[in-house]
What we know:
57% of the residues lie in helices and 0% in strands. By secondary structure, it is mostly helical. The chain has a domain at 44-71.
Amino acid sequence: MLIIFGILIILACVLLGFFVLIQNPKGGGLSGSFGGIGNQVIGVRQTTDVLEKGTWILAAVIAVLCLTAPFFIGKTSRAANTAPTAVERASGGQPVPQQAPAQLPAPAPAPNKK
């Protein structure tokens, strides 16, 4: 389920970036570079309104997807991501009792030189 959310979020982000780049920010932009060809071909008179609404809608979709995705993270997903340690694999999944660390021998005393 999280993969679906990830794909939808990435798709919405790409579309949002496209909408932002083609908007006409008061005197220029990609939509102004074509001289109104888009309005004649597509048939939309107020392209800026459509682009602005699309920007807000996509931003809201991204926000909703990002806020709802964590609710689909189950306990099984979290447990599946933790790999067993080498000790757990060697013991066949049985609990291994903890051992105290080995004591190192004390260093020999230095000889007294008088």
